[in-house]
Design brief:
two-stranded parallel ribbon; mainly alpha
Length: 151
Amino acid sequence: MRGWFDESDEGMTKGMEQLENAAHFDCGDSVAGNADTYAYFVQVVQDHGIALVAYEGGQHITGNGHAIQEDPDFIAFHIGLNRDPRMKDRYLENFENWKAAGGTLFMHFVDITYPSKYGSWGALEYLLQPGSPKWDAVVEFNQQDCFWGGC
């Protein structure tokens, strides 16, 4: 992945491809892969007569617990991915996968917080930020009609 940082877009395209469908290496996690995970867990909870909800959902791009967490290039990369306009597409794809699988309430982890080496968790980075790719996706998805009973 380090080689991506030297590309003209500082690796953003490959990073987005990796997030979308694990196109460059198998890390066990991608938006496309999450669709299968969601379908599996919906079946599990339905077998028990309960609904599937997401708690602290959203991207998890971080080096936490690894030496790369201190790498300024990696920190810039993961913050850049979260700010990239294409992150909205990844979020909307993820929400649609959740909905299609039969998930119910999806709670995004953190409304507002500034990005750091520990992660870019907030949908917004600061209180008066007019929007961001993640925030815009959350707002757009929430404007849909309720898609599960009792919401």
